[in-house]
Write a sequence for this structure.
């Protein structure tokens, strides 16, 4: 191993301020003090990039960088990678613990292709004909088919919403996605070179048609006449923890993604996507270090030097942080560099989740089911005030409908969720008891069964546990809320504008939350790293 000797004053001490200087002449190298050496002798360990956090974005970013020749360490605080995408198994039941909806699989296909692999060698999936079954308090049931024409016909038949109006709305949603995807989703919003593109300039003329300056609810009212239709399409705001009565109308494009581009289910459950990304990273040579917490960034004069891992310092001149950005700013960033706007920003919603082992088979339910509140606007008013509405909308996800191995014969595995505020200081034990009774009562009435006698509860997940397991501040599912027209522009950029060598990806930074956006975030960030710190063996052209 190559040796390197430096003067004592040029190297970090084991104690003292994090902002000490080290020699920058070898800033692509990582150093380790020789054990037993009283002098300032350090070994060169090799050229490396650190990726902090092994969620979807962290795994994807690590894989992309490794495929370009970088030597990547992925540091994961938990005992296994996956972030929110994990599962829980007990008594013959398996429950997905995080994301339950898979859309835009071509984004993940592109990740594997860019890394020289085939996604089908790692995971396969099926398109869902029926995306979601919706239940309204008056007993109306609506099947949200993945065909726009079938969905429009269903809404006219069940609700009375004119087919032409639904199709016109979905046409506008598709237009919004085409206009915004290449600018706001697939590229960095904070790189002036992207803003100077002719295609970006031409899209500026479409801004008045994108719903930026009105709420999602009022934007959709231009086409939809019935409150139940507005409830159905407004629900897509919750996909990034937002409020349809305050979030910008631009989020209406999600209707196009889910109802036209389609929803999918991976064979083996949602965790199969995590497993595929994990194996891809391993196959590309990523060094995954579990149970390894990066406590703080080590910065000197606005240049990243490395990380503090417990009592040890490791030199990483390039770090991609895929942790919750609020946690980063409040805990990992030295105070002098933290951004105050993140310390007081409104949080997205969190959730209470029940994992129920339910005896019986329920053909009236599908994979994804939503039981709407009778007072939808009031539900979000409570959330905005940091309170819980005890007539919430319930989401019931039953993976055993598609993957029978997830439950023993004669049983189903129900993932039952309601959105709640991202708050630490609420009396969660008492609130969970009341929410459980409300869920059992309302679902029993909607389905015409005595659910309480059929349920054996396996697990309860509260915002407190979400924060403990994933590091999400307050258990917020998507970090900062997206209830402002400026939310997309206020998200943390993928490259730190103040600290050289520090980059970000994940659901709480640009472009946002959800599996496809996390994968886009990883691609944007990997390209920014390659552009700022080109690797001599890099084989990709930088497009982001």
């Amino acid at each position: 191993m190559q040796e390197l000797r430096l003067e004592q004053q040029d190297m970090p001490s084991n104690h003292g301020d994090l902002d000490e200087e080290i020699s920058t002449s070898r800033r692509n190298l990582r150093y380790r003090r020789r054990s037993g050496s009283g002098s300032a002798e350090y070994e060169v360990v090799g050229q490396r990039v650190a990726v902090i956090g092994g969620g979807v974005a962290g795994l994807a970013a690590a894989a992309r960088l490794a495929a370009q020749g970088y030597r990547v360490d992925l540091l994961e605080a938990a005992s296994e990678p996956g972030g929110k995408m994990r599962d829980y198994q007990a008594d013959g039941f398996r429950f997905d613990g995080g994301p339950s909806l898979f859309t835009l699989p071509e984004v993940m296909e592109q990740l594997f292709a860019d890394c020289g692999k085939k996604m089908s060698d790692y995971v396969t999936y099926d398109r869902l004909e029926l995306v979601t079954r919706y239940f309204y308090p008056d007993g109306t049931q609506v099947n949200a088919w993945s065909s726009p024409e079938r969905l429009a016909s269903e809404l006219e038949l069940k609700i009375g919403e004119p087919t032409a109006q639904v199709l016109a709305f979905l046409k506008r949603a598709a237009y919004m996605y085409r206009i915004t995807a290449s600018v706001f989703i697939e590229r960095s919003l904070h790189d002036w070179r992207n803003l100077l593109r002719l295609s970006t300039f031409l899209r500026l003329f479409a801004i008045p048609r994108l719903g930026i300056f009105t709420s999602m609810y009022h934007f959709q009212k231009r086409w939809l006449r019935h409150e139940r239709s507005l409830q159905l399409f407004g629900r897509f705001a919750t996909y990034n923890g937002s409020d349809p009565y305050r979030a910008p109308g631009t989020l209406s494009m999600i209707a196009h993604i889910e109802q036209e581009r389609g929803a999918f289910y991976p064979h083996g459950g949602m965790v199969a996507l995590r497993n595929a990304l994990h194996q891809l990273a391993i196959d590309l040579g990523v060094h995954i270090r579990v149970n390894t917490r990066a406590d703080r960034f080590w910065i000197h004069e606005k240049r990243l030097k490395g990380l503090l891992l417990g009592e040890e310092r490791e030199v990483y001149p390039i770090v991609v942080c895929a942790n919750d950005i609020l946690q980063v700013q409040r805990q990992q960033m030295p105070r002098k560099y933290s951004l105050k706007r993140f310390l007081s920003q409104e949080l997205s919603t969190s959730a209470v989740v029940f994992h129920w082992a339910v005896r019986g088979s329920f053909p009236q339910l599908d994979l994804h089911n939503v039981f709407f509140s009778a007072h939808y606007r009031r539900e979000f008013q409570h959330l905005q005030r940091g309170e819980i509405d005890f007539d919430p909308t319930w989401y019931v996800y039953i993976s055993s409908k598609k993957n029978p191995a997830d439950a023993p014969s004669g049983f189903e595995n129900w993932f039952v969720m309601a959105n709640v505020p991202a708050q630490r200081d609420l009396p969660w034990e008492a609130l969970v008891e009341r929410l459980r009774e409300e869920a059992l009562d309302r679902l029993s009435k909607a389905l015409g069964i005595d659910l309480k006698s059929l349920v054996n509860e396996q697990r309860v997940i509260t915002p407190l546990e979400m924060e403990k397991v994933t590091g999400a501040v307050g258990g917020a599912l998507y970090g900062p809320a997206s209830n402002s027209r400026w939310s997309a522009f206020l998200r943390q950029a993928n490259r730190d504008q103040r600290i050289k060598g520090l980059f970000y990806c994940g659901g709480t930074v640009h472009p946002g939350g959800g599996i496809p956006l996390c994968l886009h975030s990883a691609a944007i960030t990997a390209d920014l790293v390659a552009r700022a710190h080109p690797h001599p063996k890099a084989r990709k052209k930088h497009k982001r």
